[in-house]
Design brief:
The structure is a single chain. Helices cover 33% and strands 22% of the residues. The strands form 6 sheets. The protein has a 7-stranded mixed β-sheet, with helices on both faces. By secondary structure, the chain is α+β, with helices and mostly antiparallel strands. The chain has 16 helices and 22 strands. The model has no long low-confidence stretch (mean pLDDT 93).
Length: 513
């Protein structure tokens, strides 16, 4: 039985902790803040509750597997998991509206033909067939297996298939997601639908590889799901599973260093007198045989600047150069109308300007806004009120100063204006609002600039891959969205599974079967 110290109590870290505890290890988690869940947080006030992180859960099989492998109670016995239908309502720049059925190809094709015109459904359906090919080629190496030592294969090969071109009498292969839209979808609304999945992670479709086609495919193939009480309930269930497996949690405990001895990790240095052991003044020591940390760059800093990866490996990229999110929590008077969509995406009226703003490190004047309206009594004081969450992708605090007086409120105003296109009378219903920026994200997760990681993607010379979970320091591993296989709730859960597998089975571990 090894002593394993886990830095942080995010979803990936807790997933790893639960699996390691079941394998017989003694696991202690050290979390800087006073709670668990990382970015999966909830804001509560006056009887209203709001998810301020992810609002929906794609690919719930990842967490079903976690609960099967770590106890007798399945996921559905611990949370009330419901499929969202429609998966999303879209309001496009020209005012066209589209509601997409959840996980139904025939239903999606029919809905597109009815809303956007004959032929658009078949075009989207053909795209999904090709997206599935990309998914089948990358699912194991980019989600279910540790990062390959010969990762260059993933960097060089574009898994999205080539498409026959009638005029050229040959096939041509899209290199970017924008090219997929322009060449294959050929409708500004279908293009907006495609690119919105990348923009949600702050990915510019003009440079994002075509392999990002797997993002809308995941939603289509596996559906979108909601947890009654909010996605925060999923974090609670994972935390309670860890407690049931005797994982020790130390909240309000800041890790200030990773200790090494004879070429391998030996424990952690903690700020203040919060652990057994001896350290320098104001610092205590938690001895450990192995350490699991989040954020390779931060972990390198904790290891006194030690290089964690060989020169030929995928390098960690600055977290602050990723995009962040502004979240606006709206407390509304008046009941949620029957049949309202859980999620609505209001597309920007000027996509080019939105993309150009990201390139300049500025918030867009007219952002694409995601609206979450869960029909959940647990998140409202009574049926005469409603809680609504608006989310927009923005530059991180590293790129744009969200602390400037009025900056956050001005952008929140533009988000409410955009949401009003889908929800008439929104401002008249507003009781109060809470605005959260990348500054809050950074405080909650420790991510530089409040950046939000995107899932790992193949091709593009490896620029969209994440560093390996195994480092060159013996006994030191990385977990979470800034490591392989990248960001997002399912990817965080898989990173925990991969780290646990590498520790329990050793370097020969090849992923879940």
């Amino acid at each position: 039985m090894a002593r394993i110290a886990v830095i942080g109590a995010g979803m990936g870290a807790m997933a790893a902790a639960a699996r390691l505890a079941v394998a017989g290890h003694r696991v202690a988690v050290y979390e800087r803040t006073e709670t668990y869940g990382g970015a999966v947080r909830r804001f509560e006030h006056d009887g209203f509750g709001f998810d301020t992180g992810p609002g929906l859960l794609p690919l719930p099989a990842v967490y079903r597997d976690l609960f099967i492998k770590t106890g007798k109670e399945p996921l559905e016995a611990c949370v009330d998991l419901v499929q969202v239908d429609p998966s999303a309502r879209h309001v496009f720049a020209d005012g066209t509206e589209l509601s997409l059925p959840n996980a139904s190809r025939a239903g999606v094709v029919a809905a597109l033909d009815e809303a956007l015109g004959a032929g658009t459904g078949d075009r989207w359906g053909d795209f999904l067939v090709r997206a599935r090919e990309a998914w089948d080629r990358t699912r194991r190496p980019l989600l279910e297996e540790p990062l390959w030592p010969n990762w260059e294969v993933l960097a060089e090969r574009e898994p999205y298939p080539a498409v026959p071109h009638k005029r050229l009498l040959r096939t041509r292969r899209a290199g970017t997601l924008a090219e997929v839209g322009a060449w294959e979808l050929r409708d500004p609304r279908l293009i907006a639908l495609l690119e919105s999945h990348a923009l949600a992670y702050g990915l510019d479709p003009r440079v994002t590889p075509a392999s990002a086609a797997v993002l809308p495919y995941l939603e289509h193939a596996f559906g979108t799901w909601y947890v009654r009480g909010g996605i925060r309930e999923l974090a609670r269930a994972v935390y309670e599973r860890c407690l049931a497996r005797k994982v020790e949690f130390n909240f309000g405990t800041e890790v200030v260093g990773v200790l090494e001895k004879d070429g391998r990790v030996a424990g952690l240095e903690l700020a203040g007198d919060t652990a057994r052991g001896h350290g320098s003044a104001g610092v205590s020591v938690a001895e450990a045989d192995m350490v699991v940390g989040t954020g390779p760059r931060r972990l390198s800093d904790l290891a006194r600047g030690r290089e964690l990866y060989e020169a030929q490996e995928v390098e960690p990229r600055p977290e602050g150069m990723s995009c962040g999110r502004v979240v606006v929590c709206l407390a509304l008077r008046g009941a949620r109308e029957a049949g309202a969509a859980h999620r609505t995406v209001v597309h920007t009226p000027d996509r080019q300007a939105e993309l150009d703003a990201f390139g300049l490190g500025e918030p867009p004047a007219h952002p694409t806004v995601r609206i979450d309206r869960p029909d959940d009594p647990a998140l409202r004081p009574d049926d005469a009120h409603e809680s609504v969450v608006l989310t927009a992708t923005v530059p991180s605090q590293t790129l744009y100063d969200w602390t400037v007086a009025g900056a956050a409120d001005a952008f929140a105003d533009s988000m409410v204006t955009a949401a009003g296109r889908a929800l008439p009378g929104l401002r008249e219903r507003l009781l109060w609002r809470e605005v959260r920026t990348p500054v809050h994200t950074g405080q909650e997760t420790g991510a530089e600039g409040g950046g939000v990681p995107a899932p790992a993607l193949a091709a593009a010379e490896g620029n969209f891959l994440r560093p390996s979970n195994r480092t060159r320091v013996s006994g030191l591993f990385t977990v979470g969205g800034w490591s392989h296989p990248g960001g997002g709730l399912p990817h965080a859960g898989m990173s925990g599974a991969l780290v646990a597998g590498l520790i329990v089975e050793g370097p020969e571990f090849r992923g879940s079967q």
